[in-house]
Specification:
The chain has 318 residues and is mainly alpha-helical. It folds into three domains: 109 residues, no CATH class; 102 residues, Transcription termination factor 3, mitochondrial (Alpha Horseshoe); 105 residues, no CATH class. Helix content is 50%, strand content 4%. The protein has a three-stranded mixed β-sheet with strand order 2-1-3. A hairpin with a 5-residue loop joins strand 1 and strand 2. This is Mitochondrial transcription termination factor 4.
Length: 318
């Protein structure tokens, strides 16, 4: 059995046996499942606060888990123990397992075989011990994503974006939410950074590009570009100025970006963001990518604009 003083990996040695598990106060739901042993050596046949405490959770954690089960209903009861076991066998301690379930209660309804397959696939992608556990704790939703979807994203990054296998591993490790990103947006973001900004794959991975939305990337890059502080490299990869590194453009807070990179005021940047947001929206309307608003609120902030005097208007191609 697993107590608070034992390693979660001790679950490997737990005796499993088919039992009928009852979840109290969940409409007396009884489902067939496997179960964990309590410290007394008796099988856990009933999901209660006491049973969760016996697994190694603190009193407050056990109460929170039990309450969350009450809120999602009795239909998930059959997956509770297999889910907890999968997390413990993965190497998470009760505190980390509680954090995972608190962030992503959807895991209660994932089948045991699906969890095992998804964890196994993450290992195949290249996530080693330590990295795998950190990814699951940081972004537990990755275990709710269908296997085919994750494999599709991995192939997409390799074939469409030409990242190496190791680079894809690093992307999944550092930016796990990428597995749920729209692939059209993902491809556009990659092409924008690669062609417009002249950034190669290695630098994208190093600065964790896929943690940022396309709008965040475009906004900071375009601001620098229109101030003459960033140039698109020519066919030979050369520029007439030294472009700032992608890391210094994205991996800093706004104050640092404005002070040390753009050398501009917050007021200038705020005006620019309003103007460029409207500009991009007009482009999307022209391309038919979005529908026009029926309430006409597109001009609601026009009185805050400077009438184009800021100098951040779109540069027309000659």
């Amino acid at each position: 059995c697993l107590t608070r003083n034992q390693s979660p990996m001790g679950l490997w040695s737990l005796l499993w046996r088919p039992e009928t598990i009852q979840v109290k106060n969940l409409k007396s739901t009884r489902v067939s499942s496997q179960d964990l042993n309590s410290p007394s050596g008796k099988p856990v046949t009933e999901l209660s606060v006491r049973s969760f405490i016996d697994m190694g959770f603190t009193d407050s954690q056990a109460e929170q888990i039990y309450e969350s089960l009450s809120s999602v209903g009795g239909g998930v009861a059959k997956h509770v123990l297999p889910t907890l076991t999968a997390l413990f066998v993965l190497g998470l301690n009760p505190s980390s397992a509680h954090k995972v379930l608190e962030k992503c209660p959807e895991l209660y309804s994932v089948k045991e075989t699906q969890l095992q397959q998804r964890i196994s696939n993450l290992r195949k992608i290249g996530l080693v011990e330590g990295s795998l556990q950190r990814v699951v704790v940081h972004y537990p939703r990755i275990l709710t994503v269908p296997l085919k979807r994750v494999k599709h994203v991995v192939m997409f990054l390799k074939e469409k974006c030409l990242f190496t296998s190791q680079q894809v591993t690093d992307i999944i490790r550092d930016c796990p939410a990428v597995v749920l990103e729209d692939l059209n947006q993902l491809e556009y973001k990659f092409q924008y950074v690669y062609f417009r900004m002249g950034i190669k794959q290695a630098e994208m991975v190093k600065c964790r590009l896929f943690r940022f939305s396309l709008d965040e990337v475009r906004c900071r890059h375009t601001f620098l570009e229109r101030r003459g502080q960033y140039e698109t490299p020519d066919k030979k990869g050369q520029t007439t100025i030294v472009n700032p590194k992608l890391d210094s453009v994205l991996n800093v807070d706004q104050d640092t970006f404005l002070t040390h990179v753009a050398q501009a005021s917050a007021e200038e940047y705020d005006v620019f963001k309003r103007l460029v947001s409207r500009e991009w929206r007009e482009e999307e309307l022209q391309q038919g990518r979005i529908e026009p608003d029926s309430d006409g609120d597109d001009d609601s902030d026009e009185d805050e604009d400077t009438g184009g005097k800021s100098g951040y208007g779109k540069k027309r191609k000659k």
